[in-house]
Amino acid sequence: MKKQKKGNTFKAYWFVLLGKELYSYKSQGDAKHKEMLTLSGVFIKNEAEEETESGDTFYPFMLIFPNKRRIYYLKTPEEKERWMSQIKRAIGYSHFFDFYDVFETLGQGKYGVVKQGTHKKTGKEVAIKIIKKKDLPQKDKELLMREIDVLK
């Protein structure tokens, strides 16, 4: 479902995911799609559930395109999870915690905190530096990029 700009009402559409393309149809069985969106370069974001004035609860997620954002609303949390999982697979999404377990803090530095971790597949112990880039000044970002190059 998509929320309409006029009146904040919801309108049902039929969606089909083919490879990295998301097609929308006015209804199931339509031969011609209403819209086709390519998912290359797209980010997916979980959104909090929303309750309508009529008491219905919807479970949304957002697709963030380079020049726009779209929120899609589903009727059940299971349906939302299934769609998010399929879209993540289509766009090649992977999460850090899919690969590493993170444990106690080993120390702190100028850019962030260092934690002990283990690579899930190999079992190898690693040090994981967690950096908050959001608040870093540009000069510090350049120093950080240099540090990353050295570590490679």
What CATH architecture of the largest domain would you give? Roll
Secondary structure class reads alpha+beta
Indicate the CATH topology of the largest domain: PH-domain like
Largest β sheet strand count, sense and barrel closure: 4 strands, antiparallel
Mind telling me the CATH class of the largest domain?
A: Mainly Beta
| Number of structural domains | 2
Compute the gyration radius: what is it? 21 Å
The total strand number stands at 12
CATH superfamily of the largest domain: Pleckstrin-homology domain (PH domain)/Phosphotyrosine-binding domain (PTB)
* Helix fraction bin: 10-25%
Give the averaged pLDDT, no decimals: 90
Strands, helices and their partners?
Blueprint: E1 2-3, E2 10-11, E3 14-18, E4 21-25, E5 35-38, E6 43-46, E7 50-51, E8 57-64, E9 69-74, H1 77-91, E10 100-108, E11 112-119, E12 125-131, H2 138-151
